[in-house]
Structures are given as C-alpha cells and as structure tokens.
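Weekly puzzle thread! Below is a chain. First person to post its structure in token form gets bragging rights.
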Amino acid sequence: PQTGKNGVMKDYRATFSKNPLAFDIDIEGLKSGWYHVEGEADETSIQALNTRIENAMVQGLKADLDMKKSSSHVDVQGTIQLKMKYLCSVTGKPFKRSETVEVKDAMAIDAAAEGEKVDDVLTDTFDVGEFVSQQVLLSIDEFAVHPDVQRSEGNTVYADPLSPEELAEKEGKNNPFQVLEKLK
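Winning reply:
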C-alpha cells in the first residue's frame, strides 16, 4: 500500500512507468482496483502532440496518474506537469512557463453505464496517450500573456509590444505623410 493523492492509502495492483503519450492499457485484462501510471514523454511523442497545437509548444511533459478500475467504470485522477513555450498574445514575443494540469475524469467501460455520470465510454482499451493529449489541449492558454506585461485592476492589459526603436522604425515606414515631409 502507498499513500496516493489527498493522503488516501491505495493498494496499487501495478505501477506503469511508461511514456504517457505512447501508452494504452487493455481494460479487459485489468482486475478491479487501483493502478498507477507515471512517466515522461519522449521527444518524438512531444513533437507529434505539438502538431495539434497553435501559438504554443510543449517542451516537456510528465504524467502522474491514479486509475481506479471497477466493473463498470475507469476513474482517472492526477497531475500532468508541463513545460510550455508560448507566444505572448500582446507582444508576440516568446516566453516559457511551467504548468501543472489537474485531471479528474470518469469513463464507462460499457454502453449500459452510459446513462451514468461519465465523460466517455471506453471500448477494449484505455488510450493513455490520447487521454493525456486531450487534457493538455484543453489546458492550453490560447491568449497567453507574458508575465512582464502589466495588467490593470479590471485585468486590462497595458503594454507596448514594440521597443522604442522598433516603434520609431514602424512609424517611419507606415506613415502616409512621410512622403510629403520629404517633399518639403
């Protein structure tokens, strides 16, 4: 027995230490009880995940999940640790951020349990990689803002996305009156 999340004692039937993005479990082969899935994604799996993401990039991923199988359900809870690279939606400049995604999901093993409170119905296998990928995709901040960008009390963003040199250069190139000024 081990102490799992929230200090609850869990007698894990097995611990799978695998790349969570490239792992699936045969549901019918599992006895009822607790299982632990932990692991770090390899570079190839991360690259495949990144093809599904816009304006951000996963640079590292570790999963630590507890899975409880019963006769009709599979419940999954745990954390996914992410190292992300975002483009600031205000400045357009890249920045890095570490994030922890808390996951909790219930899936039915058969269609008869579909009417119960579950998020999905499993077939013969539980695709851990797809589950983790979906959780990551749902957690990505589509409008990430660099931590140095100042915000007001109403969460309004105040930032000049360009440096003074870039701003002067841009104003010079896009100023429609620049040609008239040169004629003087």
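Puzzle host: Confirmed. Bonus trivia for everyone else. The longest helix spans residues 128-139.
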